[in-house]
Design brief:
The complex is a heterodimer of chains A (249) and B (493). Chain A is of the alpha/beta class and 249 residues long. Chain A has nine helices and twelve strands. Chain B is globular, with a radius of gyration of 22 Å. Chain B has one domain. The chains are: A alpha/beta (249), B alpha/beta (493). Chain A: This is Fe-S cluster assembly ATP-binding protein.
């Protein structure tokens, strides 16, 4: 069954059309990679699915887990199981990661009719997921992303994903800013958290190196606001070898 | 760690339940005993007689009243104050009371119901006190000007701490009161202070004797309940040599259409090596979304750091009132004395706040720290106004000032007005100021993690104010966090 079905999606950002009839379907249990030149609209797709204000939907439809995605507020999409790994994670001074995540998680749980996790249960969960991503618990006591290195921010995104345990993760250039070791840890983390029969991942990336760890079932090329080519894992290798111009020609 | 989180969680829920119920738009049906309407020497005499005050106190009040008649309403603050008709108010209202009360059981059940509805935790405090290891909080509950209940008095007495309503103290400890009343804030200090001297109805007196560490946090909850009744609270706290006391003041008021005046005076005195920590959460009714109603909060708060190494720390969270005009200050006379001011002021809708501090450095080596966090939303105006003054004889003074403003939306105003007067070149004065907006990035990030918009705003604002909030005693900190969120509801989007 499809978890995410995007049909003919068009949008504008600051009155400028960006997505121009994009269609894409993800089934549960699948990992899809999206590649594409700078400015193609990859981040725009991620933000639009997340419901970011200013990313105006002008046409098409998106069904997420059987619901109309555009009927939901951003926080309701989160509670329904949609997670966005940000290309540029945001700093929130004075708010510890633990407080941020605990409030977020409990607010999602409340929306799903679940009891909030107690302080003890939450700390246990946070420790487990931080361990999985090799992030020190001390980092989670610090304010959200403040003073974190690029790589630490990306790891922190993955710890958040682990704690929130979404159905669908849209990861926007999670591999950028990571060194070789961190790349492996993050790749293995994604597999551990998301490679499950009831989950799916949309991986936005420029490089094959992340796909070495998180092997995609499908690879798509986004250019000019549309998916212009789709294939298997081999397509990524081909793109890396020959460049977008050649492959799209 | 996890245990602490859990405790906070339980408290947060209790506080949230209390705070969420801020539809205090009802008025308890308690028989009031009013002073004659309007303000005259007769009103002053009526109040003094009601309080069974000695002759000197009446004379003091009358002197203040006569002086007040010669004064004009100040207009220098960045406030837009509609004229107040002083003849159209009652200056005294007391709940009917027969004899002095021995315990809470004797308190008018209607009053207790009001407190329960408000969530003011007298019952809760009793429970807390019974719980082994729980921090004890003494509650001197001021209901519409008159103390109706005082708890924990015995334990305080054993420590030698005097904790009384100011009326009681005037009768029982006239010498102590005479010695200090009006010493820190003289009756001619300002318009509202003079008015307060003339008609103050009740308030709190604390004396902590030499070398005594007050065994519990002292807390007073104020509340306005009578229509058209100005509140003129008077607080006097004296910490003798080497003494320590932490005092908490919090208030909330019911919904009213008519503006109500609140003109309290708070005086603190710290002698050698003494320390006073004074915390306030101010949540008077701010008026409705169109700016109708709400409390006028014109408070004079000042501390005299008279002794060597004395220290006074003001912490305030100001979320309420239509208009706030308030500058908790420290006169640092003692050598190496320390003054601190930590403030969060939130204004929303049509609220106006003009608040800050004065640090008057007269003593050698005196130091002060000012951390002010202003949060403005809606059509509100929020001004930090502060003075750091260093006298010629004060060698080696240090001051650090940090003023941060956070704006929500673009129809509100934030202003920072620092006055610095340094007459001794050895002083080190540092001033930092920032202004920022809650970014769309931050809001979307938080919402993408599952927080609704109001929770996201509350979270970000609390992070902004954290440096101040963490100065509060824990039971206040949790409540204050909830308050910040609640007072900004509807301010974004
Ligand atoms: N906030 C914005 N205002 C105006 N244009 C924008 C905004 N965000 C993105 N764009 C434009 O939309 C296009 C797609 O950007 P983006 O989705 O970030 O591309 P990608 O992530 O594929 O590199 C670019 O031309 C970019 O300049
Ligand atoms: Mg991008």
């Amino acid at each position: 069954m499809s978890l995410l079905r995007i049909e003919n999606l068009t949008n504008t950002v600051a009155d400028k059309p960006i997505l121009k009839g994009l269609s894409l379907t993800l089934n549960a249990g699948e990992i899809h990679a999206i590649m594409g030149p700078n400015g193609a609209g990859k981040s725009t797709l991620a933000y639009t699915l997340g419901g970011r204000p200013g990313y105006e939907v002008t046409g098409g439809s998106v069904e997420f887990d059987g619901q109309d995605l555009f009927d939901m507020e951003p926080h309701e999409r989160a509670a329904a199981g949609l997670f966005l790994g940000f290309q540029y994670p945001v700093e929130i001074p004075g708010v510890s990661n633990l407080q941020f995540l605990r409030e977020s998680l409990n607010s999602q749980r409340k929306a799903r009719g679940l009891d909030p996790l107690s302080g003890g249960e939450f700390i246990k969960l946070a420790k487990e997921k931080a361990g999985l991503l090799g992030l020190d618990m001390e980092m989670l006591k610090r304010p959200v992303n403040v003073g974190f290195s690029g790589g630490e921010k990306k790891r922190n995104e993955m710890v958040q994903m682990g704690i929130l345990d979404p159905k669908l993760a849209i990861l926007d250039e999670t591999d950028s800013g990571l060194d070789i070791d961190a790349l492996r840890v993050v790749g293995e983390g994604i597999n551990a958290i998301m490679r499950k029969p009831d989950k799916a991942v949309l991986l936005i990336t420029h490089y094959q190196r992340l796909l070495d760890y998180v092997k995609p079932d499908f690879v798509h090329v986004l250019a000019g606001g549309r998916i212009v080519k789709s294939g298997g894992a081999d397509l990524a290798l081909e793109l890396e070898r020959e460049g977008y111009a050649e492959v799209l020609a | 760690m996890s245990e602490e989180v859990e405790i906070r969680d339980a408290e947060a829920r209790a506080a949230a339940a209390r705070a969420a119920d801020y539809e205090h738009g009802w008025s308890a049906d308690i028989e009031q005993e009013f002073a004659p309407k309007g303000l005259s020497e007769d009103t002053v005499r009526f109040i003094s007689a009601k309080k069974e005050e000695p002759e000197w106190m009446l004379e003091w009040r009358l002197k203040a009243y006569r002086h007040w008649l010669t004064m004009e309403t100040p207009d220098w603050a960045k406030l837009d104050i509609p004229p107040i008709d002083y003849q159209d108010a009652y200056y005294y209202a007391a709940p009917k009371q027969k004899d002095a009360l021995k315990s809470l059981d004797e308190v008018d059940p209607e009053i207790l119901r009001v407190y329960e509805k408000l969530g003011i935790p007298i019952e809760e405090q009793k429970v807390l006190a019974g719980v082994e290891g729980a921090r004890k909080v003494a509650v001197d509950a001021v209901f519409d000007s008159v103390s109706v209940a005082t708890t924990f008095r015995r334990e305080l007495e054993e420590a030698g701490v005097i904790f009384r309503s100011i009326s009681e103290a005037i009768r029982e400890y006239p010498e102590l009161v005479k010695k200090w009343l009006g010493r820190v804030v003289p009756m001619h200090d300002n318009y509202f202070a003079a008015l307060n001297c003339a008609v103050f109805s009740d308030g709190t007196f604390v004396y902590v004797p030499e070398g005594v560490r007050c065994p519990m946090e002292l807390s007073t909850y104020f509340r306005i309940n009578a229509e058209n009744t100005g509140q003129f609270e008077r607080t006097l706290i004296v910490a003798d040599k080497g003494a320590y006391v932490s005092y908490l003041e919090g208030c909330t008021a019911p919904m009213r259409d008519e503006n109500q005046l609140h003109a309290a005076v708070v005086e603190l005195v710290a002698l050698d090596d003494a320390e006073i920590k004074y915390s306030t959460v101010q949540n008077w009714y701010p008026g409705d979304a169109e700016g109708r109603g709400g409390i006028y909060n014109f408070v004079t708060k000042r501390a005299l750091c008279q002794g060597r190494n004395s220290k006074v720390s003001w912490t305030q969270v100001e979320t309420g009132s239509a208009i706030t005009w308030k500058y908790p200050s420290c006169v640092l006379n003692g050598e190496n004395s320390v003054g601190e001011f930590y403030s969060v002021a939130v204004t929303n809708n049509y609220q106006q706040a003009d608040t800050g501090t004065k640090m008057i450095h007269n003593g050698k080596g005196s130091r002060s720290t000012i951390v002010s966090k202003g949060i403005s939303a809606g059509h509100s105006n929020n001004t930090y106004r502060g003075l750091v003054r260093v006298a010629p004889q004060a060698e080696g003074v240090r001051n650090f000032t940090q003023c941060d403003s956070l704006l929500l939306g673009d129809r509100c105003g934030a202003h920072t007005v620092p006055y610095i007067e340094v007459r001794n070149p050895s002083a080190t004065i540092e001033h930092e100021a920032t202004t920022s907006k809650i970014s769309d990035d931050q809001l979307f990030y938080a919402m993408q993690r599952g927080l609704d918009q109001e929770s996201a705003v509350a979270l970000i604002v609390n992070g902004f104010a954290k440096e101040v909030l963490q100065q509060l005693p824990m039971e206040f900190a949790v409540e204050a966090q909830k308050l910040l969120g609640i007072s900004l509801e509807g301010s974004v989007g």
